[in-house]
Amino acid sequence: MQTPQQPYTDGPWIKLGKFIGLFFLLMVPQLVLFLPMNSKVSPAIYWPLFAGAYLVAYIIYLYYFRHYRKPGPQPLNKQAWLTIVFGFLAMKVATLVLYPLNQLVGHEAVTKNDQVIYQLMGNSNRNVVVMTVMMGVFFAPLAEELLFRGVLMNFFFKNRFWPGILISAVAFGLAHANNTWTGALTYIALGGILAFIYKKTNNLKITIIIHFLNNFPLLLLLFLG
């Protein structure tokens, strides 16, 4: 006879330590992107490292998400798809407002994070370009939503609405490369929109799809260009 699963009772400092470790785990596959720039490193080495690092991160993130998350159904019904449309448009409006602000106040044509992506997409090594597209369109949205919404908000703010949204947004914003506070504000706003939608719906599938739709057009244009 199976005994009921005991709830997790980690204290706040243990949870904080776990989250910091999970945060740095997200950086590992991104660092692998720089291996193809060394002509001495074979694709047989960096492609398995790249895919394997994300696979390990997904498994660990899913483990914590499933054990800590607030239970409830997560269907992709008509209401969910309407929320996806709303979230995607909200992120585009935020970008249209905050990018010009960053240009005016921060004197940046594009954010530091986008500059890094442009440089990677302009690399002469096709493997770097393909890995960047895969990371930006598929791997990063899933990993970042699992970490900053699924794990972070359920670790610390399962029953607290606005604090969870604020901390998730700030963590998401600071996780992206920034030179200016207005650049960071752009990603904080985008993270806040995703966090608000997750809190309202308790459906991580919705925020993953919105994140994917937000990243896909730009990376597709850069890849084709």
TrEMBL record:
The chain crosses the membrane at residues 20-38, 44-64, 80-101, 128-148, 160-177, 183-199, 206-224. Keywords: Membrane, Transmembrane, Transmembrane helix. Residues 130-216 form the CAAX prenyl protease 2/Lysostaphin resistance protein A-like domain. InterPro entries: CAAX_protease (IPR052710), Rce1/LyrA-like_dom (IPR003675). It comes from the Bacteria. One of its GO terms (molecular function) is endopeptidase activity. It holds the Pfam family Rce1-like. GO terms for biological process: CAAX-box protein maturation. Belongs to the UPF0177 family. This is CAAX prenyl protease 2/Lysostaphin resistance protein A-like domain-containing protein. It comes from Agrilactobacillus composti DSM 18527 = JCM 14202.
